[in-house]
Amino acid sequence: MNTTKMTNKLILNLLIGGGLLAGLASCADESISLKDVNYPLYERLDTAGYQGYELVWSEEFDQDGRPNSAYWNYDEGYMRNEEAQDYLKDDPRTSRIEGGDLVIEAFKDPHEGINKWTGEPYHFDYSSAELTTKGKVDFQYGRLDIAAKIPTGRGVWPAFWMRPTDALEGKYAEIDIMEYVWGNTEDHNTYYVTLHTQATNDGLAERWSGNTSSPTLESNYHLYSLVWDEEMIQVLFDNEVVCTAEKEEGMTLDYWPFDQPFYLIMNIAVGGGWGGQWGIDETIFPKQMNVKYIRYYKPIEVSVPGGGDGNVDDGAEYVVNGGFETDLDASMQPKVGPRSDIEGLNAVNFVNRWWVLNHNNAALTIDKTTGADDSNHSLKYTNSKLDNWWSTDMSMCLQGVPAGKYVLSFWAKSSQTTAPLAVNLALCETEEDMKPTYKEWKALVKENGKTLIKKKNGNGDLYCLTSETVGTEWKQYSVTLDIPANILLKLVLKPQTQGVPNECNSYKLINPATNLEFWFDEFSLKEKK
Fold first, then answer.
1. Does the reported pTM lie above 0.70?
2. Active-site residue numbers?
3. Are residues 261 and 332 in the same domain?
């Protein structure tokens, strides 16, 4: 195995260090089976998932016929790279479910067609298929497993790869989990892994890449995996790392465009700029790719005392009674009052206690009729009318939060189909930081995946951490932060207010701002280990 930019780290911390390997080692015999195919012995064939992870989506291909249209789209005709195949849409000759496999087949089929990008005539020598989950199934973080046999031979170019669901103009991104070409190796049984970015395309950075070989790529099922979080991507072959990409501090979208949803593409190309570099052996066709299953796992979320959700391997919770299940005494009831209540050193009086500005008919109460995650308690904000964005604030303070990585999360819903909600997280590193008015406080923001401290200079408000859209159904919102050493944190919510993350002068009240109702539940600030 030869890799570029490899590290000595084994698979993402939770999946290897005491997680995945421990889970595999402890598998009962009934969850390992060779059946009639040659899986790696350590591959789990059950769908229970890896330890600490749960299966959230899968395609088992267990019913013969056409691929499931709820999951799969097709690319058609000429697509790229001066390749020799015509991609056919939903044609059983090139894509079908058969014998418990998704079969993608390329066969010799000389015919004339059109290059849809230029409108000019194009001669195809082969027909094949390219299936995608675009617009139907997205992937962001977690583990993606594809168990498959892939075709090999001179001129065939099979691939499992991913592109962003919502492509950003001028910000290229691509994850090639597997690409086979004939290559220059003696045995011609090597496949390749590559991560592409705008910076690598522009020649400003080196591509993360790797390759590995097996004499049984075509004859046996192997496990092709992507393990992915906010800081690292690793691509595996039969649970062995082939390529590692690590996010470095200060990376912009040009260098790390992977913090967004991607969709999956599976295809067999023939010839083309890379696949046809060594010519095409016409005698090897037809060629098939056989996919046994695709499984997507994400970390298990569990309820935690005090409200909020957290990873099973996460640490301490710093919000008390974030789910409002415990009755509050008079000193901890939500308070409606002037801004002076919570400014300066007075802020310490509102640690784990909610406050809202007394603008018009603002009210903040505990609603015992509805709650998130099958509970029946929540925090309810109401107001007959909002006149401006700076009068919308509701907030709560936290103390005793040590420096570290955290997940801030909460659930929310509104009486409106779509209602904006801006979120700030202010902090004081010293007592002096508490003395100015709260709009002068420092605030945490996210920039290119990195947590920064910013403070307004001139007009505006606290820097916006995130701006969400709340609907009529309960939904969880979360952000991961590296919180520095501090003596106080203040969470500020601005109902019916739209902000721009990482800006302090962009808040806007969205009308109609009358007869407002917002509900909040399961507040959590949980240490992320």
1. no
2. 174, 179
3. no
